[in-house]
Design a protein that fits this description.
The chain is α/β, with parallel strands linked by helices and 347 residues long. It is built from 11 helices and 16 strands. It has a 7-stranded mixed beta sheet with strand order 6-5-4-7-10-15-16. Bound molecules: 5-S-methyl-1-O-phosphono-5-thio-D-ribulose.
């Protein structure tokens, strides 16, 4: 299962699967420097919190390889600049900043080495971040799979799959692991307006693996829940505050409220690197606003009248009290709150 690579390192360069073109075309774009990787993140060539973190780490490594034969001062200044450019690419997913901090720590630890050795260390760190991501997703998958009954009908929002990570996925990783454990799972994918990650990416990714998936318009979720056709909701996260509030793709909050109304468990799957203990609660999470064009139409077709006012916040915050369990690599934490989250890190 799961032959999908959102990113790969080939012949000294980073290749990103162009997620803007899916599902119509499977194209990989090649990257050789940090500024271009930052642009790829901004333009959603690569998206999904863990995948953004991995891409940023490779962006730093690429820059180190590119500058390794320059003078030491120019090398260090170039890496500082690269990290700032990458940090400014998208604001909400904390994995981006987490990965950059890890690259900074590796740079500090290698500081006395020759520049080519530093560059090699930074590339090794980027590979480690990506490998670790897959391992953690598999651990999360095993913990989360236990929560799903055989024949469960699971609703998901956005894409928290292999495409959003270095492999296996967070929310979709749990579904994959449950299926690998012999369960039959049926997925309902919200199409996820306005960028259609559910319709274009989740539906495609699950089809690739032969996992039963039914696409619904976002606004059909309430009816399906009311009719008793959804047994559980699983979503990923872009940033989880210290009190357990969850920022995820716009529309997640609506699904969480609907799930509570219909007594359906609402699960959030995310690695510890998505938990931002420095952010006190959801109010403090920066919410990205993107261009009006994303709401006016898609793929060159505009369906709304030119000149209409548009608001396009692309994430929302689900309060912790709507979360039935937070599934991390350490296990399933039921009804997460500030104290339970703090204890997770001490475990
Ligand atoms: O704007 P995107 O596509 O980067 O948003 C992605 C999401 O909201 C995902 O649900 C989240 O990053 C979790 S991915 C494992």
């Amino acid at each position: 299962m799961n032959k999908i690579n959102s990113l790969r390192w080939i012949d000294g360069a980073l290749e990103l699967l162009d997620q803007r073109a899916l599902p119509l075309r499977v194209d990989y774009l090649r990257y050789n420097n940090a500024a271009d990787v930052a642009q790829g993140i901004r333009q959603l060539v690569v998206r999904g919190a863990p995948a953004i973190g991995c891409a940023a780490a490779y962006g730093v490594a690429l820059e180190a390889l590119r500058l390794q034969h320059q003078a030491r001062d120019a090398f260090i200044a170039g890496l500082d600049r690269a990290m700032s450019i990458l940090a400014a690419s998208r604001p909400t997913a904390v994995n981006l900043f987490w990965a950059l901090n890890r690259m900074r720590a590796r740079l500090d630890a290698s500081f006395d080495h020759a520049l080519p050795a530093i560059a090699a260390d930074l590339l090794a760190e980027a590979h480690a971040i990506a490998d670790e991501d897959v391992r953690l997703n598999r651990a999360m998958g095993a913990h989360g799979a236990a929560l799903l009954a055989n024949n469960a009908r699971v609703l998901t929002h956005c894409n928290a799959g292999a495409l959003a990570t270095a492999g296996h996925g967070t929310a979709l990783g749990i579904i994959r692991s449950a299926i690998e454990a012999g369960k039959r799972i049926e997925v309902y994918a919200d199409e996820t307006r306005p960028f259609l990650q559910g319709a274009r990416l989740t539906a495609w990714e699950l089809q690739q693996d032969g996992i039963p998936v039914t696409l619904i318009a976002d606004n059909a979720a309430g009816l399906l829940m009311h009719r008793g056709e959804i047994d559980a909701v699983i979503v990923g996260a872009d940033r989880i505050a210290a009190n357990g509030d969850v920022a995820n793709k716009i529309g997640t909050y609506t699904v969480a409220v609907l799930a509570r109304r219909h007594d359906i468990p609402f699960y959030v799957a995310a690695p510890l690197s998505t938990i931002d203990r420095a952010t006190v609660n959801g109010e403090a999470i920066p919410i990205e606003e993107r261009a009006a064009e994303e709401v006016l139409g898609y793929g060159g077709t505009q369906w709304a009248p030119a000149g209409v006012a548009v608001k396009n916040p692309v994430f929302d915050v689900t309060p912790a009290d709507l979360v039935s369990a937070l599934i991390t690599e350490r296990g399933a934490l039921s009804t997460p709150d500030r104290a339970k989250i703090a204890a997770l890190f001490d475990a």
